Amino acid sequence: MPPVPPPREQGFTATTGVPLYWCRYGDPSRPALHVLHGGPGASHDYLLPQLLVLAELGGGFELVFHDQRGGGRSRTDDPAPITVDVHVADCAAVRRELGIAAAPIAGYSWGALLALHVAVAARAGRHGLAVPPWLALVSPAPFLPDDRARFDAEFQRRQASPAIAALRAELAASGLRERDPDAHRQRAFELSVAGYFADPARARDLTPFRVLGKVQASTWASVDGAALLAALPTVAVPACVVHGDADPIPLHSARRTADAVGATFTTIPGCGHVPYVEAPGALRTALAAFLDALPA
Q: Which of 95, 113, 143, 232 has its CA 20 to 30 A from that of 223?
């Protein structure tokens, strides 16, 4: 898999309820772009190195990531439930502490949904948030219960498909477990998420990650999809939604998100949930077109 370069700068927050890991990539003289990873309960690592291409778009950006509370290097023993409002408050504190309070946001999957919650909270004057100047939403997670159920069912169907079963059988017969245990673990991880891809054979060169179920469960339990849908028109900033037409997340869910927030909508043909791996050129083209159309 491609090597992941070290960040230019990294550390832990001092102004959040628990220390949150953060890191910066790219030219510090360029404007900051706050990148929100998916999950919830995951970490930023799995977006790398492929999504570092964001630093090259527009006039160039310094990319700022943080591991959201409960995942990655921001794990905590605090027994209090981690809700969407906790994540929003954490984002507000991270943005203030790191000097990126007015930065635009790029969110992937759950991170796109979190970006929308941040923008809605900013418009409502909550957590001292400044309204981000624009949003880039890649493969946004579904927030209405019916769409989430459709996504879960489709992902499970794909994971049980003959295509993925054949790839698992190929791995089992390869002898890789005995020859190279690390490579076997890597390939086993890739097959565990192959259902996200339009073609499961493309699930390669991925950075492994873990999703903590407790964090995921408490966060999703706190998402009020109907309330968010009603609030999205208040966001009123330039935004784009990019979604693969073979994503297990229903295409109509992403289109509803785009329509509600008034975003441009780009569909990537033959692409699943991971366009930064499956269709990096098309993703870059879509995001570049959005940025080129922004007012100077």
A: 95
Is the pTM higher than 0.85? The answer reads yes
Residue 13 near residue 97 (C-beta atoms within 8 A) = yes
Give the whole-angstrom CA distance, residue 282 versus residue 271: 10
The contacts of residue 227 (CB under 8 Å, 6+ apart) are none
| Count of Cβ atoms closer than 10 Å to residue 214 Cβ | 12
Q: Tell me whether strands 32-36 and 105-108 are parallel, antiparallel or unpaired.
A: parallel
Cβ–Cβ under 8 Å, residues 44 and 37: yes
Strands (E), the chain: 9-12, 21-25, 32-36, 62-66, 105-108, 135-138, 239-244, 264-268
DSSP H or E run through 187: helix 181-192
Q: What is the pLDDT of residues 10-52, one digit of tens each?
A: 999 999 999 999 999 999 999 999 999 999 999 999 999 999 9
Residue bearing tokens 């790219």: 26
The span from the CA of 267 to the CA of 50, in Å, is: 19
Q: Quick one: DSSP state of residue 31?
A: P
Q: Is-contact 120 228, C-beta < 8 A?
A: yes
